[in-house]
Amino acid sequence: MSDLERAEPYGVLLYYKYASVPDLDELVSFYERSCNSLGLLGRVRLAAHGVNVTVGGKLSALEEHIDVVKSNALFEGTDFKLASCDQPLNDKVAKECGFTSLSIRVVEELVTFSSHPLVRSPDISFAGRHLSALEFHSVLQSAGKLLDEGSPTSSERLVLLDARNLYETRIGKFHTPGLETLDPQIRQYSDLHDWIDDNSERLQGKCILMYCTGGIRCEMASAYIKGKGSGFENVYQLYGGIQRYLEQFPDGGFFKGKNFVFDHRISVGSSNANVISTCLLCSCPFDDYSTRCRCASCRMLVLVCDSCRQVEGSIYTCELCQKHSKCGLSTPATENCKSEVLPREIKLSTLSSERQGFGASRKLRILCLHGFRQNASSFKGRTASLAKKLRNIAELVFVDAPHELCFIFQPPVIDGHSELSTEHRGPPPKEKCKKKFAWLVPPDFTAGSEADWKEADGPFDPLQYQQQTGGFDSSLAYLKSMYLQEGPFDGILGFSQGAAMAALVCAHKDKLKGEMNFRFAILCSGFTLNLAEFEHGSINCPSLHIFGRDHGRDRQIPNKASADLSEYFENGSRVVIQHDSGHIIPTRSPYIDEIKNFLQQFL
After folding, report:
1. Catalytic residue status for 212
2. Could you please report the per-residue DSSP string of 402-435?
3. pTM, whole model, 2 decimals?
4. Using the 8-state DSSP alphabet, how is residue 356 labeled?
5. Strongest mean pLDDT among 140-149, 228-237, 423-432
6. Catalytic residue among 207, 212, 279, 305
7. Alpha helices for 142-235 (secondary structure H)
């Protein structure tokens, strides 16, 4: 970058908008054109119900982008939060925060409010009433007596609720003497849903003032609280979040410390930003996250001062893990945002003794990869019994593969003929069918219209999986992004083609350190693809292989194919379970006991 370019004013832009998006593809194209032409880097998340954007670039380019966005009626009333700042100087931090590239993705949720599916998602139209920074300050100043409607009669009915994660609230929060302030102390936003449910009695009948960094997390959470019905009507949120408040009150007002932000700035303080947090190890005043130190167990950011980081072999264990009697290993964790687990190779034979200090351990988190022409929802349904029987030791996390497939329609055969009228041979309505995905696809696979219906050109070919050898690179990039968003994970479980994909990830395990760390793999009804460059016994990763016996009832993946896959894994760290069932993961005894025995070694 030239000196002239560095001299140009730089900035960061944040905005979100909840609105019905009529054409997601068109919106994706719009952001690709606008951001690429203006040289903007950062994250753009698009969903059917709105957008969430954090981008950086030259101030002039960001201002031009705002003007273009404002010309679209979809963004009417959007609060554009633009801040001038220095350009990213720490490349590792910039990379972790997504400011070294432009990422535009279509997602199901703009922010993930719950780690498990909800019966009914919160209706954003019922979100809490917006309070400007001045109104919010005034309410705090008068202990809630200035609200026009639904105002409390005394400060005892007013509670302040912080909707952010613990590592954010450590370094900065609102403080008003005599006012009850609730800090949920959650690791991630998706934990807030459960905290609200567990603390409903503390919230019911109260006037709730909510706040977060920029406002978007309060939208979903406040709507969920109000949706609980009687006694939860009075919910208010700080419009524009802490960022707008600090702009209005440069001296900090009632906000003490620094505002954690999810870009290369790391945190933003007022003109009177006192250090309110301390070093995890020595308790001296400290609030600098730039070294990206993390808890060895749960991977949450922790604060470790410069002096303590020089102590070799120090244990970094966050306060939440300490509370639950966990210990961990020290690591600077500077490479990525959330995906690192333990940085060293651990063999199955030595795992128990090396991790025995963890005591009452957290549940294992296992990333689950579905089979060909399946999706996360269907695979979750098929493994419901497994999840139930492992619920005390493992959390299964399901994701869709990145390659969307066309719908295949097999016309019915009557008297040996499929020549029916067009009315009877047409496919069912597409809106009634769930999308199907794949991790690996044929080399000549093209996206584009793959979501359309196609009539099968012949009977089902049980050996079609052997031709699905393409798409690994894009699937691997997709998994890396999932690790960044949903990680860390202790292990990977793959079924059928998902097992083939998981095996390829295991084969590249050393190259993926710092981006996709995991400690074990469970491969069910798997088979080999693209492993020609590897030798038998060369994959060093603790693995559990579950597949049908030679004369079992799995008619889709032959016993020999799964057995051959297991041979690629190091003999001393692989476990094989063969069963007599069909193309499933068996959960009856003794199979479930063997699965539990394998997992227990990682607790």
Report:
1. yes
2. SEE-PEEE----BTTB----HHHHSPPPGGGS--
3. 0.55
4. G
5. 228-237
6. 212
7. 166-169, 192-198, 200-203, 216-226
